[in-house]
Specification:
Blueprint (H helix, E strand, L loop, with lengths): L3 H10 L7 H10 L7 E4 L2 H11 L3 E6 L12 E5 L2 H14 L6 E6 L5 E10 L3 E8 L4 H4 L2 E5 L4 H10 L17 H17 L3 E12 L2 E4 L2 E5 L6
Antiparallel strand pairs: 1-4, 2-3, 2-4, 5-6, 5-8, 6-7, 8-9, 8-10
């Protein structure tokens, strides 16, 4: 069983400002958030073996606690389709990213026409809160979001879905089945529990959370630690 307490405590003890993507998703998985199938590889050969095990296509990402915006620095390669391309991706990432790496994250590509963003923050007035928002390129333009103060129950999480102006995307949409609303509610409650049980966590970002058919899957995630929690 994943020990979320140990992962967070270790990051704090090492003076990290955030957990790596891999560690962040391990914590979230421990709180019931479905995450993409992935393997942390230490070398190009390990990455090739991971790709074969997961099945192509895969994404190859730089993985490290100091990496906040991997795409901006050449740390993400998508739709990698064979072993030779994985080796090329690892070489490209290794030459592009100067931040120390824990390894190369090889993850199964997840397809879906719908995506949302789930976030957890500590508001100065209200304390820990969870946000659900429309994902993709429209998130900033539309600012279609809903918030709840932690703790909250399943019925509150389900209400968040209905508060979005784009709530129709959760129904049968463009050939996709109706979203498993209870599963999405569990994601929202899981993020809330991370904040409630770990005061050293400042922020949680799950972006994107893609619906693979009806099922939500966290494709990328980041847990940021509060200032002053590092030793």
């Amino acid at each position: 069983m994943i020990d979320a307490n140990e992962l967070i405590a270790r990051a704090v003890a090492q003076g990290q400002t955030a957990l790596s993507e891999y560690a962040s998703k391990r914590v979230l998985a421990a709180y019931g958030v479905p995450v993409v199938e992935e393997i942390l590889a230490g070398s190009a050969e390990d990455a090739v073996r991971a790709g074969k095990k997961l099945g192509y296509p895969v994404a190859v990402k730089a993985c490290g606690a100091g990496l906040m915006h991997k795409s901006d620095i050449g740390g993400v390669m998508l739709n990698v389709r064979n072993g030779a391309s994985i080796r090329d991706a690892v070489e490209h990432i290794g030459s592009s990213v100067t931040t120390p790496l824990e390894g190369y994250l090889v993850q199964r590509m997840v397809s879906g026409k719908r995506e949302v963003i789930v976030g957890g923050i500590r508001d100065a007035l209200f304390g820990p809160c969870v946000m659900l928002g429309l994902g993709g390129i429209l998130v900033e333009a539309l600012a279609d979001v809903s918030f709840r103060v932690v703790p909250f129950e399943e019925r509150d999480a389900l209400e968040m879905l209905n508060e979005l102006r784009a709530q129709r995307i959760f129904g049968a949409f463009r050939g996709e089945p109706e979203v498993e609303r209870a599963a999405l509610a569990r994601v929202l409650m899981g993020v809330g529990r991370v904040l409630a049980e770990h005061p050293e966590v400042a922020q949680v970002d799950v972006n994107p959370l893609i619906f693979h058919g009806a099922r939500p899957v966290a494709v990328d995630a980041l847990i940021t630690l509060a200032k002053g929690s590092q030793t």
